Predict the 3D structure of the following.
Amino acid sequence: MNPENKTVRDVLAYYGTDSEYGLSNKQVEENRSRFGRNKLKDHKKVSIIVKFFMQFNDFMIVILLIAAAVSFFISYLKNEVDFLDPIIILAIVTMNAVLGVLQESKAEKALEALKKMSAPMAKVIRASNIKMVTAEELVPGDIILLESGDFVPADARLISSSNLKAEESALTGESLPVEKEADILINPNSAIGDRKNMVYSSSSVSAGKAKAIVCFTGMETEVGKIADMIISDESPQTPLQKKLEQTGKTLGIGALLICGIIFVLGIFKHMEPFEMFMTSVSLAVAAIPEGLPAIVTIMLAIGVQRMAREKAIIRKLPAVETLGSANVICSDKTGTLTQNKMKVVEIADTNGKLSSTSEKNKTILEYASLCNDSSISAFGDIIGDPTESSIIIAASSLELDKKELDLKFARVGEIPFDSKRKLMSTIHKINDGFLIITKGAPDVLIKKCTEYLEGDRVSAMNLSKYNSLNKINSQMAEKALRVLGVAYKKVKNFPDKYNEDTIENNLTYMGFIGIIDPPREEAYDAVKTCKKAGIKPVMVTGDHIITAKAIAEKLGILEDGDKAMTGDELNNLSQEELNNIIEEYSVFARLAPEHKVRIVKAFQSRGDIVAMTGDGVNDAPALKAADIGCAMGINGTDVAKGAADMVLADDNFATIVCAVKEGRGIYSNIRKAVHFLLSSNIGEIITILVAILIGFDTPLLAIQLLWVNLVTDSLPAIALGLEPPEKGIMQRKPFSSQKSLFADGLWSRIICEGLMVGFLALIAFGIGAVYYDFGSVPEIGRTMAFSTLSISQLVHAFNMRSDKSILRLNLFENIYLVYAFIIGVILQVLVITIEPLAVIFKVKPLSLENWFTVVLLCLMPIVIVELEKFFTSDEKEASKFKIFDKSKSELKKMKS
Ligand code: ATP
């Protein structure tokens, strides 16, 4: 069946459907079992076994396996029956791989769930009802409704369309939108781009509206035919992941060199070469931070889940990092800062005589109801845009019924609302010709009028009337009202080819409708939080500047010294001029979507990290240009969602602020985990290196190092990633995106703390070896060093939680860290006290006196770091602000 060269009636008959009734629920079920779900074949999933073996594809693991093989071989040659070392290494490597697979699939699941949450939806007519369903649920024969900004969910034949344009670049490579038309027949052999009576899955509607019948779904669609070429689910690494991988590699090479040196030194000092080889290899494995990128991935994935709970759905992983650095949030007004619960509160005629919804201005409401796409469902609910719905509700209070009006004055043509024109027009059949109604922003509409209505009299527009109409508009806007104007004209003949130029002129102005849309309650606090957190909230809106200012003042966005600008004023500025003054402005009104890109670029030119909201198809470029593009989940179009980094499931400004808080939390948790892992690794290197340099025996054996690496390093690092955002995190300036993760002296702290951990282990070793081993094989010394290293790191993890003293923190706030500590300590004690384990780990039971020494040494990290925090925390706090201010002043200097 080729729907292209069939009439709409034939296509409908073929699928046994009706353009008004749609399919019945039974037909939907039948077609679904026949044609399957409307989705493309999934990318081949990697099996768990393959994933497991992929974990071994790591440089360090390969070295460990070689070490295991060497040790097995040597034991064999020496005719030793004890293959413990290689067995333990294999066990540890396997455990590592299992953990790796578990963590990976957890991260994958989190991202998969998110993908589902942002799956495109489709508006479908079934059994006479209009419903939203996921695109996957569509079946051939379904009648779908499309409008500007929608993704086309399946290949469909147009039934009717109005000014429809579709962007089909994914299929045709042509980036310009193509015009579509229902009432033509096309040769099915023509190229996709020429089949104008069809719309195709994977394209999007860039303008107009349409009704269409689904003909092909899933793999039967045109995109399905080329699906294998384009399905790719590679998720690229985030900048931080890339940077850390690089840092990890550099550190790894450094660690390998040190291990080489330790091996050579050991040989010179006549240590047992085989044990020395194993120690060096284990040290390399313990010291190389091969887990860094993995830890970051897990933390990002956990963060993404947390954000989803807060209704911020991350679509692109790097956004999680960028959020922490955001210092400008540009937000739409309607629905994001305000409740989008519109209510008509004032109607004014052309003399400015106000009335609420009284008989006097009934015709204004009547016309506004006709030029209106909201409708009342069979259950009495109002479906449609809140601005339009508020008019229908006001009209019904005057007994004006939308359905009756539509029957009386049948709509025969329309030019849909678009936020660039800020107008909407409809054409209706009346007795002696046609009635054209235009409604929209009064300041735009008045310019299109040559006459105005006064009572029943129509007079010619003049300058003084023009000014007085604009004044009425401003007076209403000052009350924070969203104001709409209504105008009309009557024509004898239906316009040949109608468009905005031919229709929206020579109109007669009728009056104004004032709609209240109160600010969202939570927006007040969110704005305050932003300001405390060094983030500038900016309102960008299509509404009138006076309305915008009134609401921005209420919310605290516009304060003393802040300025407001209109889209027209912005047009008169060059980009450079805008860059220079942008910081002074907090409100941009009467904007067209393309202005948003200029605003984003202007803030970015000053080094700002900008979040920008958007909902319409024309907002996509600004969403892409912003550092964090935020699309509206409820009112946003599919195109806007597709272009965004983050989708706000509740369209709420406060959600962006929550996401920033989470973003900051994740960034600082990553910093904490990296801090912890690296200081622990350095501690291990120091212990071995110093011991060998000063001629001690090796204080830790290979197996012990591997244990420390697996248990005492990994558990607390992951637990640190689960730390909730710190209390004061929104009272600091944002992290500068220019600064490295290791800025603010992190490196020096890592090294100092590494030295501390290393020396504590050495002291333990020294005490054990000298006082308890009496010069023989230092077994007690090693056991004490092993326990000290292990437990002191578990203790040290608590230091990472904050720059503040741990006495000022709630210990149980991060319960995972407490669990990690308890499990780590119990395992460590078990390894030493249970006989068979002690044999494997080559340790000796410790006396109470030994344990006392170990415990004392293990508490030292808290004491030392607390002292350090006591002397430096105020300074550190101050320097955070200084660094931020400096970068701002440096930028100013650069500018001048
Ligand atoms: P934002 O959501 O970006 O804060 P907005 O939603 O207020 O802005 P638009 O939807 O572009 O901005 O509306 C701009 C102006 O267009 C409004 O002030 C109003 O006068 C007019 N307008 C809005 N909706 C309609 C509509 N459905 N029909 C006619 N005019 C409308």
In short: DSSP finds 32 helices and 26 strands in the chain. Confidence is low (pLDDT under 50) at residues 229-234, 878-896. The pocket of adenosine-5'-triphosphate is lined by residues 332-334, 385, 387-388, 417, 419, 422, 424, 439-441, 482-484, 541-544 (CB under 6 Å). The two ends are 68 Å apart (CA to CA).
